[in-house]
Amino acid sequence: MSYKGRIDIVTIVIYIVAVYVATIAIQIYQPVTGGYFNLGEAVIYLAAILHGPIVAALAGGIGASLADLSTGYGIFAPATAVIKFIEGYFAGWLIWKFRDKARNIKAAVGALIGALYTLLLIFFAIYYWSGPTYVGPEQFLSLTITSAYLEIPVYVWIIIVLVIGASLSYVLVKKLVTAWEPLALIFAGLEMVIGYFLYEYFVSNPLTGRQPVAAIVEIPVNIGQAVIGASIAVPLASWLVRAGYGRGKSD
After folding, report:
1. Which of 24, 55, 131, 151 has its CA 20 to 30 A from that of 246?
2. Of 44-53, 77-86, 143-152, 213-222, which gets the smallest average pLDDT?
């Protein structure tokens, strides 16, 4: 079924709100660039899988930019509106355009993709996510917020990502979704990584007195954001389809 039949205002609004909430719920500040890690990609990718490019694009562009504006990251809001719009549209377009052609990907390929995802998650868990973490925004609507402080040991992160990776691998091997979906999301995520690098290098870092070359530091962080977003969205979308929500209802 074409994704065009699934577009409606209520669905778009729901996903805009969901992207907004996911983006502000966990914000890990990156002092070198002034940006932050968040889970908004998971909802953008979920919208792309279940509802196609239009819903994902509008949810990403509007929801994420509103999150920037309301939590003290307004300098990124214009770039976020464009970058996340393109990311959502690209993710949805790739998945829906090539879905039928990708049905016959073998389980072994799915297992390999799951393993590579798991290795990437372990890398980011060890080098970027473990240690001191402030949960939630530091600012909301110009009000300063005392964020919750967590000290998460590396072994806890490894356990978490192994569970996520195993879940994703199981879904891929069992062909509940095509192995093409996580690949499509990573391709779309690369647009986000490149977009923010260019914006930070040429616009936000110079405006805030930071070195333009510091934008390189956030590249692995944004890659990790795309990877963990896809790792959440793919199994969740499969479960929702099996429960009768989204593209599974009429396919």
Report:
1. 24
2. 143-152
